[in-house]
Amino acid sequence: MKTHTTIGGKLLEGDDSPLLTLAHEIALTHHEKWDGSGYPAGLRGENIPLSGRIVAIADVFDALTSHRPYKKAWTLDSAINYINEEADHHFDPQVVAWFNDALEDILKIYRSHPEITEDR
User: For residue 101, what are the CA distances in angstroms to 1, 26, 45, 88, 97?
Assistant: First the structure.
């Protein structure tokens, strides 16, 4: 499981396209944690690119609120509470604040896709 970051990074490296450069950065850093306990490089704080810090929250929110064969989806409240509880540990506290500021819009988008959210 942990190798998907480096595999994705390798697949996306070597292109000077701004989009693929950003995708490469995200692939390598979206599982790093603010407190340095993430992977693959154990980056900490602002050493994690902002793109990775933003996608980390989006990735966890999606994972928590999605039904998987091995787990039921969390409620929206539970997922939102988890993200807030993990500010300054898993997540950049400033990015968590931005998540909360944008939450109304995030939930509007979330609820506009019943084909995705019907099992949630």
Answer: 32, 22, 21, 17, 6
Q: In the predicted model, is pLDDT for residue 120 greater than 70?
A: no
Q: Any bridge partners for residue 71, and if so which?
A: 68
The residue type at 68: R
What is the residue type of 91? F
> The CATH number of the domain where 13 resides is what?
1.10.3210.10
Which residue range(s) make up the domain with 97?
4-117
C-alpha–C-alpha distance, residues 66 and 103, integer Å: 17
Our CA dihedral for 87, 82, 50, 100, rounded to 10 degrees, sits at -90
**pLDDT tens string 43-81:** 999 999 999 999 999 999 999 998 889 999 999 999 999
CA distance 51 to 27: 10
Report pLDDT digits (tens) over 74-103.
Answer: 999 999 999 999 999 999 999 999 999 999
6-14 own/partner pairs: CB under 8 Å, 24+ apart:
6/40
